[in-house]
Specification:
By secondary structure, the protein is of the alpha/beta class. It has 13 helices and 16 strands. The chain has a 7-stranded mixed beta sheet, with helices on both faces. A 5-stranded mixed beta sheet has the order 1-15-16-14-13. A hairpin with a 2-residue loop joins strand 11 and strand 12. The N and C termini lie far apart (about 50 Å). The chain binds pyridoxal-5'-phosphate. Pyridoxal-5'-phosphate (PLP) binds next to helix 3.
């Protein structure tokens, strides 16, 4: 038993400030919606919930084409897309953006696909001229697909998906366009049908404010037709089997509680309005960037970043994305000066102040920390987190220019 007088084992007071870029804060309404007994998943009571979640999620994807969901995390939906469309030996073009593009490419390689990497500096992401050029040079149309991560969660760089579609069209290239929207959907503007996206890969635990466990693919009519006669050997992920019921069948038990939750979270999004939710993310992200610019006194280093990490000296706090037009509105990756360890900063933040932050992934471990600002979030929560980052930097002795929060406040007063 813990001492009743010393309080040494006391649980921290207040809620944890949770600013990871996935999973994210789950609203009480969503948690409460899941707090109910199980249901027969073929019952009259459950089927309308499944149908409504499908319909509403299609609204979020801005599509009237096919949607199929899986009891899995995002990696499952990555695999579902690949095995339903491509067979071993098929060639795909992977747009390098960071750790997540690399992982999707590794998965594709394990499945026997031939990957060509269109290399890019992680601070910028692929340039559209180079993409168009590469697609035009592929005269025999060897590429069966182009794989892009809309919002690269490891770097906070967002790619212009509409322009990637334009590049494909300008080159007259028939490759399918596959887009990972796991950390962009409902936070950044995304339009499956208008932008001619063939496959949308999504997951429940980021901008959709839900637990991990439901992933999905939006599937264009053309992609569906290709999958009917193509793809690799597959079982669990097979779209054809799933389409034997409407809106879909699950292989095995339908995860009813995940639907209770996602049904509620997607309805919350539609109540707020998709455009309003996206505008809220834009506003909050601007405040984060204002704070970061202030902490580093507008530092603009010339370092580049790739799979081997950061290329040169970082002298001050600096936002990782170097092209402001591509800075993500759902997550900010922040570089700290050389000689400082972001894992120390994160430890101070979570252990002393109960603020959870994201770390640097892969080659960015210890060099970068990430503030997730997607999902169920408002101004006071964000200002609380930014203040606490400033406090944790002070304790961890990371040099910064005090007053970032004041800059964030000014950015919010618009
Ligand atoms: C989180 C994330 C993934 C992986 O999703 P899991 O649910 O962890 O499998 C893939 N891509 C991006 C862009 C992500 O942010």
């Amino acid at each position: 038993m813990s001492s009743t007088t010393s309080g040494s084992n006391a649980a921290p007071r207040g809620r944890q400030f949770f600013f990871n870029p996935g999973p994210t804060n789950i609203p009480d309404r969503v948690l409460n919606a899941m707090n109910r007994p199980a249901l027969d998943f073929f019952s009259e009571e459950f089927l309308p919930i499944l149908a409504r979640t499908h319909a509403n999620l299609k609204t979020v994807l801005r599509t009237d084409q096919q949607l199929l969901m899986y009891a899995s995390n995002g990696h499952g939906a990555w695999e579902a897309a690949l095995v339903n469309l491509f067979k071993p030996g098929d060639k795909v073009l992977l747009l390098e953006s960071g750790r997540f593009s690399a992982s999707w490419g590794d998965m594709a390689a394990q499945l026997g696909l031939e990957i060509e990497l269109l290399a890019a500096d992680w601070r910028f992401g692929v340039g559209m001229d180079r993409l168009t050029e590469r697609l035009k040079a592929d005269r025999g149309h060897a590429f069966k697909g182009v794989l892009a991560v809309h919002n690269e969660t490891s770097t906070g760089v967002a790619l212009p998906i509409d322009q990637i579609r334009k590049a494909l069209d300008a080159a007259g290239h028939p490759a399918l366009l596959l887009v990972d929207t796991i950390s962009s959907l409902a936070s950044l503007d995304f339009r499956m049908d208008d932008w001619g996206v063939d496959i949308v890969v999504g997951g429940s635990q980021k901008g959709l404010m839900m637990t991990t466990g439901l992933a999905f693919t939006g599937i264009s009519r053309r992609a569906m037709a290709i999958s009917e006669t193509g793809g690799a050997r597959r079982s669990y992920w097979n779209w054809k089997d799933m389409l034997t019921h409407k809106p879909q069948r699950f292989p095995g038990t339908t995860p009813v509680h995940l639907f209770f939750g996602l049904d509620e979270s997607v309805r919350m999004l539609l109540e707020e309005g998709l455009d309003a939710a996206i505008a809220r993310h834009t506003r909050l992200a601007r405040a984060v960037r204002a704070a970061v610019a202030h902490w580093g006194e507008g530092a603009k280093s010339s370092v580049s970043i790739g799979a081997k990490g950061i290329s040169g000296p970082v002298k001050a706090i600096e936002l990782l994305p170097a092209d402001p037009a591509r800075a993500s509105d759902s997550v900010s990756a922040i570089m700290v000066p050389d000689g400082h360890d972001t894992n120390v900063l994160r430890k101070v933040a979570v252990q002393r102040f109960n603020l959870s932050l994201g770390g640097g992934l892969g080659p960015l471990g210890g060099r970068v920390f990430r503030i997730g600002h997607m999902g169920d979030l408002n101004e006071p929560m964000l200002l609380g987190a930014l203040s606490t980052v400033e406090l944790a930097m002070r304790v961890a002795k990371i040099p910064y220019c005090p007053g970032g929060v004041t800059a964030a406040i000014a950015a919010l007063d618009v």
